[in-house]
Request: fold
Amino acid sequence: MIKKNIQEFKKFIARGNVLDLAVGVIIGGAFSSIVTSLVNNILTPIIGLVLGGVDFSSLAITFKDTRIEYGAFIQSIIDFLIVAFCIFTIVKIINKFMHFHKKEEEKKEPVKSAEVILLEEIRDLLKEEKSTKKSK
Reply:
């Protein structure tokens, strides 16, 4: 029973889509750290300069003995929107590049083989023969 389960697990892991998913998760994690660094180290300070150095993370309300830090929540929303916009922009650029590359491939006219040319000539001759028989 255990041996059968191990064999099924090996078969499951060896399938291409599982390996593709694993690679995607790893690359996604690495990409996430790049985007987070872009947001935290470049974009957020620039936005802070534009907004006059406003830092929402320190905003809070104290109610009795409880401190409600709503500023950190607002900062998280702003960070999320910046990250989402960065990812949107990067995906849009990549899609534009891929679409441009695809157009380049479509522009290249496929070269017809000798067999295809011969078959087209035979087809055209048969059409001509058929049309001349109808006119007689």
